[in-house]
Amino acid sequence: MKSGYIKELEANKTFTTSFLVRSKEIREKKTGEPYLSLWLCDRTGEIEAKMWDNVADVLDSFERDDFVKIKGLIQVYHNRPQLTVHKVRRLQDSEVDFSDYFPASARNTDEMWREMRQIISAMSDPHLKALVEAVLDDPEIAQRYRQAPAAKQIHHAWLGGLLEHVLSLCRLGVMTAEHYGVDLNLLLAGAVLHDIGKIYELSYDRSFGYTTEGQLLGHMVLGLRMVSDKLRALPDFPPRLRTLVEHMVVSHHGKLEFGSPKLPQFPEALLLHYLDDMDSKMECMRALVAQDRQVEGHFTGYNVSLERMVLKKSKYMTPDVVRAPTQANGSGPSEFESESKAAAALQDELPEKTAPEQPNPCPQDGAPSLFDVPKETKFRETAAPEPKLGPQQAAHPLFQTPSAQDS
Length: 407
Fold this sequence. Notes:
Largest sheet: 5 strands, mixed, barrel
Number of strands: 7
CATH class of the domain at 109-290: Mainly Alpha
Structural class: alpha+beta
Helix content: 25-40%
Radius of gyration: 29 Å
Distance between the termini: 38 Å
Number of helices: 13
CATH topology of the domain at 109-290: Hypothetical protein af1432
């Protein structure tokens, strides 16, 4: 296991650790000499790096997707950490543990796979269930489905990210289908199959990128090809139902300018698009806050896909610590501290005054609140009504109460 992950590196300290090279560019200084502009990553994030000196000695010693060992210094530049590289050496694959360098889902992939298969096993439409299970039963597809990211960068961009995203859509589908009166079987089939082409569109052996097929065709066309291959073994599959499934695959981006050749044209397709868009954007926002490298301020940097900066809410809600100024040499009490001590001594000599208690609108540690109800005030107790489930939800395993025998 490597030491010194990106999230652990501190500013103004030298270090020696290893990274995966995500990008490498050779640029020129004003003097005409070359320098290296790099993006380095490990499983905790990525960081921009520059190598200014002795570049000619290492220029051809490593490339993109190589593992490198680096000695350098972290500094803050334009409110963001930047690494200055002093020395760099290419590492052999045998010298590293791949799991230290690739971001992966926090959830166990086998556990997520079992949960998704359980949801699919409860589908009641025999044709749609047979199609989805034929896809997921394919050993190569199953292995890739567990491993693939959902995107190169925008959302769920980690190993196992595609499975995590699709499982989230399946759960959202179960919760919303009854509310909107749509066909849960068709919605689940669309959730599992809409991004299936990404297992071949994306490359994820090293840093994430696109395969040649992915660049030429895209995941929608690749997904339609995979669905068509499995339908050959299902001769009784209704042709019109096939058209609905294919439409959900090609329309799930929702807009022509977002890459869908068709707009969603029936309720299940429209709901799939909005669930897909919501899940990806919520994860994108969460990850943006978690991985933001801005040193100061309450907002992240600007995110192109979200078209905004995002408030770091927990930091914003934490009161800033006000520190008293110190002397220029950093020793002894400052003028501010001396005045504070004098004021405190004078306050001790004055008669104690008791201020009237004021209600606290934002209580902490059990303090009284404006919204506290006096103990003598009594309310009539009424039982909250039990939530009513529709027939599709009531029959689904996600909403079943385990029996004593099951537990």
